[in-house]
């Protein structure tokens, strides 16, 4: 995997807050922030188009390529919800950086998806029932809980930031 420098990876289910938290952490550390979904869209095209025309397998391969080719420097990287669950992506992140799980309760995620209309922008959520989403949430959680640190919505940010800094030294 390319990308010299330190890396922090935010993982978690869709709408768990990875991008918001990633931007905030990058700002507080003075690091650059990147989002794997944005990198995929820049290089390969819109995610829903990739899913529709080329399938999920191609999308997951694109995710893996983006992960393995992150640029050099100290980066906070917000990943797509499924990225840690395919290939050896989770192992690569665990070995090459600090992995943080945005552990947002399922009911909060559903509320966010419904409020923002975000369910329509996410290929795996667009046609899924609440029960199907819950099953996916539970299945992916098995991978997410391998992270070095966990952040929950009610955690104190200052305390959390200190934990992160300790892990980086």
List key phrases describing it.
single chain; 169 residues; alpha/beta; Rossmann fold; 5-stranded parallel beta sheet; 9 helices; 54% helix
- Domain module count: 1
Overall mean pLDDT stands at 93
Biggest beta sheet summary: 5 strands, parallel
CATH topology: Rossmann fold
What is the chain-wise order of helices and strands? Answer: EHEHHHEHEHHHEH
- What is the helical fraction, as a range of percent? 40-55%
CATH class call: Alpha Beta
Euclidean distance between termini CA atoms? 21 Å
Relevant CATH superfamily: P-loop containing nucleotide triphosphate hydrolases
What are the low-pLDDT stretches, counting only 5+ consecutive residues below 50?
Answer: none
Strand order of the largest sheet: 2-3-1-4-5
CATH architecture: 3-Layer(aba) Sandwich
Please describe what this structure looks like:
About 55% of the residues lie in helices and about 10% in strands. With about 170 residues, it is of the alpha/beta class. The chain has one domain (about 5-160): Rossmann fold (3-Layer(aba) Sandwich). It has a five-stranded parallel sheet, with helices on both faces. The two termini are about 20 Å apart. The model has no long low-confidence stretch (mean pLDDT about 95).
């Amino acid at each position: 995997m390319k990308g010299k420098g330190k890396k922090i990876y935010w993982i978690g289910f869709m709408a768990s807050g990875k991008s918001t938290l990633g931007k905030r952490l990058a700002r507080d550390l003075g690091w650059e922030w990147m989002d794997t979904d944005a990198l995929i869209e820049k290089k390969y095209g819109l995610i829903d188009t990739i899913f529709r025309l080329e399938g999920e397998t191609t999308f997951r391969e694109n995710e893996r390529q983006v992960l393995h080719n992150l640029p050099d420097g100290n980066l906070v990287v917000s990943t797509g919800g499924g990225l840690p669950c395919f290939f050896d992506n989770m192992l690569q992140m665990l070995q090459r950086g600090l992995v943080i799980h945005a552990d947002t309760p399922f009911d909060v995620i559903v509320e966010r998806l419904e409020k923002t209309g975000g369910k329509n922008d996410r290929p795996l959520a667009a046609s899924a029932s609440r029960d199907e989403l819950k099953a996916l949430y539970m299945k992916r959680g098995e991978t997410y809980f391998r992270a070095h640190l966990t952040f929950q919505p009610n955690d104190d940010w200052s305390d959390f930031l200190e934990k992160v800094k300790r892990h980086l030294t």
